[in-house]
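#structure-requests
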Amino acid sequence: MRQRTKEWYKSGAPWIWLNAGAVSISVLMVIGLIGLISARGLVYFWPSDVLEGHYRESNGQEIPVLGEIDTVEIIPASRARDSGYTIEGDSEVTRYLIKVGNRDIYGADFKLVMEPFLTEVTYPEDVLVVERREWGNFYGHLKSITENGNVIAEGAEAKKLLPARLARSVDLFHQVRSIQKHEIGAINFQLEKLRLKKRGLELKGVKDPSAYAALEEEAKSLEQKYKQLREKMTELIVQSRRDSIIVTTITGQEITLPLAKVVRVHYPNAMGLWQKIGFYFEKLWEFVSDEPREANTEGGIFPAIFGTVMMVLLMSVIVTPFGVVAAVYLREYAKQGLLIRLIRIAVNNLAGVPSIVYGVFGLGFFVYFLGGNIDTLFFPEAQPAPTFGTPGLLWASLTLAILTLPVVIVATEEGLARIPSSIREGSMALGATRAETLWRIVIPMASPAMMTGLILAVARAAGEVAPLMLVGVVKLAPSLPLDGNFPYLHMDRKFMHLGFHIYDVGFQSPNVEAARPLVYATSLLLIIVIVLLNLAAIYVRNHLREKYRALEN
């Protein structure tokens, strides 16, 4: 028996099982983590039922409560007694965190209640949930609709007219936003370019009045267009303020809510399953396609998605050629010796440098030194306002390119080392030069390894936050780095990023409880973005691997 055990150990089977077990545990942990994030994040979009009841507080005062249950937890009775509640025995108590909304009235979105002291709980179908552009959700009952201050419908009639009135208001809001962001934004961009041209002529000492007159004439034309758009936008704003709704809180207080500040209205207790599913996907689409609002705790995160993908693509375009060229030189051209071994050690050590160090380097070298000199040489008319001498998309991409460069170099070198020397010798024996052999034979065969390095680089870069906080990422970017104004891709602009968005909402939000589900939802979306980018790279790598497998054989 002992002999068989020794033979079993010598065969290596225990280590195979140990490795398999470790891999299985790791996979289960990853699946469990993603499952937790998914469960906590995807529930954020589901329309929960709204309860109405009475609650007796620790001082004996009874108050009405209206809201949706956010979380449920079981706590020891002793903790409830410490809060001033009278509970017999050592049993456990259920505690609810109820989202009561109406922050502009109550001062807080949530309220903690003990289940034994919550009575007369019902779920009325006429409870209204109003999602506002400011102050979060409102929970109450619809009383009437007003037009220019005059009541035009009440009760059931108001409920019937509300969807059409709200759709009109939302459409007007989007028209105003479109004029602000696109048409007026384009005019402001062109006016700024004219100002810089005029300043450039002044710096060059141009005295010809005709040069300035042409700029002034163009500026007057743009200002006239701006005035017309401003008048149109003002008219739309006045139209959007026509309708309002009068709603009542659970305490009977009447509140007037302009529909211009309302995103959507729904009755969750009266919704069927299919209505809730439709509402769920409507909210999900808004999350991935709209802009954030309410200090990033409401609305969508499209600018952060766009910024993350754009930065990763630019980083990939920058890091791939530099990493490949460096690896080809180290493996194919450099004379192997002490210096090259030291360089390889340095490259491997760079992969372990904390990312914030790269951020400090990017801020000092790229932003202040390189960007500052670019402004001095090419944008003197914009001084003292910086153009490239400030954090932006270009510097963030370059910083992450340097951060991920060691990964690409190491992966490419390993791919080049796996190519048999006989293939190189055979190519040169047929008359090909060394450069032709590298370009047409060696590098294409090593391309799967290059793609592996790029996959690892993308996975790391997409999740980095610390360096980006120094070189270009902001809490809220007023415009995307890609638009319809020449040169279309504005490398000098700041941008939003999913990783920083998670940090900002999770740790800097003034309303932590309301932001917690959004943190999980954004984390899940970041994982999906990274997976999609990696799958695209893996597809390309597998295609290249199959293409050059015949040569390897």
